[in-house]
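Entry 14. Ran structure prediction on the chain below.
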Amino acid sequence: MTTEEFNYDLPEELIAQTPLKKRSASKLLIMDKKTGALEHKQFVNIIDYLFPGNVLVLNNTKVIPARLIGEKEQTHASIELLLLKNKVEDTWECLAKPFKRLHIGTKISFGNGILIAEVIEKKESGMVIVTFKYNGIFLNILDTLGQMPLPPYIHKKLEEKDRYQTVYAKNIGSAAAPTAGLHFTEELLKKIKEKGIIIVEITLHVGLGTFRPVEVSDIKKHVMHSEFYQMTKETASILNKAKKENRKIIAVGTTSTRTLETIMEKYNTFKECEGNTDIFIYPGYEFKAIDGLITNFHLPKSTLLMLISAFSKKELILKAYEEAIQKKYRFFSFGDAMFIK
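Output, C-alpha cells:
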C-alpha cells in the first residue's frame, strides 16, 4: 500500500486559518462507515447521533506553549525548539530548527537568559535532547516565553490562546491539540450528559507521532514516534462494562482512538495503565475498541487519514472528502468535523 493512494487535492482557501467564534457552529459531516452514506449537519447536531448508554471518550491533554525561539549563546544564531516529550524533570525531547547548527554542548538562550537549554544528545530527523536551566517554575516561564505550537499550514496569529485548547483540557503535556475536541462547548457536553450519554476521559499527549508526515512510499515502512498515554481505573471500568453490554464506544479524535486501541491490543481489555504508544493504524487493521469516531478533516497522505480509512474504507473516505470540498467544508485543525458511525 502506497502513501500516494491517500493523496487528494485540496484548494488552499479551504484550510481553516482561524477558529470560528462559536466552537459548536462548525459543519458536521455524518458518514456511515459501511455504506458511505452522507448527511450534512452542524456540530451542535452531534447530540442527535448519540444515544443513552453510549460512551464518549475525550482526550483531556492540555497543550503547552511548546514553541520556543531563542539564540545560540556564542553566535546569536536564531534557534527554534518544539518541546515534544518530557523525559525526566528538566530534560526534554525536542524538534530543533536548524538542526545542523546544533551540537552536543550547544547552549541556547531564551528571553535574554531567563531560560537556557543545553543539547545533551542529537538524534535523527531533527530531534535533540536538551536540559533546561532556570530560576522559578518551568511552566510559568514557558507561559511567558513560549508560543502555541500551531501547525505550519496556519499562517494567521491566534488571538486567544485557549482556542487551541479543548474546554476539558487539564493534563499538561501536548505539543498539539487533539483538534476533534475543539468543537465541544461546556453547554453541549452538559446536554450530552443529560441525554444519558456517559462521558469518560483518557490522556494522550500529542507529539510528533500524530502530525509527522509520511515520507516513505510504502506506508508499512513509516515509523511512528511514541507518545505518552494514560487511562484511569474508573474509565477502564466504564468502558469494560459498555463492551460487556454491547453499548457503543465513540472516540473523540484519532488520539483517543489510538489510546483505546493500544490498550486493547496490549491487554485485550481496558485497564488502569500508562505507557508510550507508537501504534500505526492503516487499512487492514481490525478495530477492537471503538464503534464510532468523531474527527476533523486530515492532511493528504497523513497517518490520520490512513487511520480513518482503516475504520471505514479508503474509497468511501476519499469520496466523502470530495463532497466536503465541493460543499466548502473547512479543513484541518481549526476546520469542520466528521462523525464516522
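The helical segments are 138-145, 186-194, 208-211, 233-244, 254-267, 303-311, 314-326. Will compare against last week's run tomorrow.
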